[in-house]
Amino acid sequence: MAIYHVTVGRKEYRVEIQPGQYKVNGRLMDMQLQQLNSNGLYLVERDKQKVEMLLKPMDAGRVSVVVNQRHLMVRVERNSVKIRNGRATHSQDEILAPMPGVVVQLLAVNGQAVQAGDVVLIIESMKMQMEIRAHLPGKIERLSKKPGDKIDKGEVLACIRTSP
Q1: How many angstroms separate the CA atoms of 80 and 47, rounded?
Q2: Alpha carbons 31 and 81: distance in angstroms, whole number
Q3: Distance between CA 32 and CA 19 in Å, rounded?
Q4: Residue 44 belongs to what domain range?
Q5: Bridge partners of 52?
Q6: Could you report the per-residue pLDDT of 1-58, keeping only the tens digit for each?
Q7: In a domain, 102, yes or no
Q8: Which residue, of 78, 108, 142, is where some domain finishes?
Q9: Is residue 150 in some structural domain?
Q10: How many distinct helices (H) and strands (E) make up the chain?
Q11: Number of domains in the chain
């Protein structure tokens, strides 16, 4: 699954993309996206409506979008890490990779209760292994990776659902 944070003006959206499935702010979107050419022209089909969009990557995560004769400048940031005023932020329930590396072992499973400090998984970076621990108590809601997966710094490794 690819996760993007998309900012249009003052509005922010969390977009999750899996093959054939799109979620915006956690809500499943019934839509199809088809690339029409290699110049950035796409066809979006949603609720029996079809709209063409022209996407042109700019610099530093900005994308020029033309849709319905409107021009928008959109900021797109990959993974769960968002940059605000030069600082990375993320959702409190996410366990993020502290450095690039490879997942070596999972020590928790989806639905498992964990306490703050429990080891959830082990990663390896530069031939050194690191235990990745839960930072709060709750249940593992989603393990995003499996052993052998390569990871980037700041990438979501797991999510913990806390009890209300």
Answers
A1: 28
A2: 25
A3: 10
A4: 2-78
A5: 43
A6: 788 888 888 888 888 888 888 888 889 988 888 999 989 999 999 888 999 999 998 8
A7: yes
A8: 78
A9: yes
A10: 0, 19
A11: 2
